[in-house]
């Protein structure tokens, strides 16, 4: 989006500034992934997107989409909003601006975007779900050990 409103150095919040009549990204923060879970299978199928970036885990619809359409879901670690914004070379376009800045879809050109953690791979393996199993197996042993030393935990 080359020319935007005739405002100067206005902060809109949500990590977007207008500088010299162009949008500039100053922080990047993804939305909670799970709120998109019910749409993800159809979205990946219809758009052909190969990388989904969000905050937190996803479920079976996304696992299916990643496996069957060779996509991945990545988690964007907390505390990296400014680091990621530095990798945005240009805001190419902004869609659905009538919904307000937080809901605007920003089309950005980026370089070396990250850090990212692959949470669902192209085989549909889900890091969060696999870790839940491991953590639950360890939890019981840890609780038993704690109970030996602390009498009020049962």
From TrEMBL:
It is an enzyme of class 4 (lyase). Belongs to the class-I fumarase family. Its EC number is 4.2.1.32. The keyword Cell membrane does not apply. It catalyses: (2R,3R)-tartrate = oxaloacetate + H2O. This is L(+)-tartrate dehydratase subunit beta. Heterotetramer of two alpha and two beta subunits. GO terms for molecular function: L(+)-tartrate dehydratase activity. InterPro entries: Fe-S_hydro-lyase_TtdB-typ_cat, Fe-S_hydroAse_TtdB_cat_sf. It comes from the Bacteria. Residues 22-130 form the Fe-S hydro-lyase tartrate dehydratase beta-type catalytic domain. Keywords: Lyase.
């Amino acid at each position: 989006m080359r020319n935007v409103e005739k405002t100067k150095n206005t902060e809109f919040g949500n990590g977007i500034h207008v500088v010299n009549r162009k949008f500039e990204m100053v922080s990047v923060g993804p939305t909670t992934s799970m709120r998109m879970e019910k749409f993800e299978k159809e979205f990946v199928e219809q758009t052909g997107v190969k990388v989904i970036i969000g905050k937190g885990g996803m479920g079976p619809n996304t696992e299916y989409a990643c496996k069957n359409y060779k996509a991945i879901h990545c988690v964007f670690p907390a505390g990296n909003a400014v680091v990621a914004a530095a990798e945005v070379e240009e805001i190419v376009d902004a869609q659905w601006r009538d919904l307000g800045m937080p809901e605007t879809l920003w089309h950005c050109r980026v370089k070396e975007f990250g850090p990212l953690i692959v949470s669902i791979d192209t085989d549909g393996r889900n890091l969060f779900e696999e870790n839940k199993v491991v953590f639950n197996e360890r939890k019981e042993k840890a609780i038993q050990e704690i109970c030996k030393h602390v009498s009020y935990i049962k």
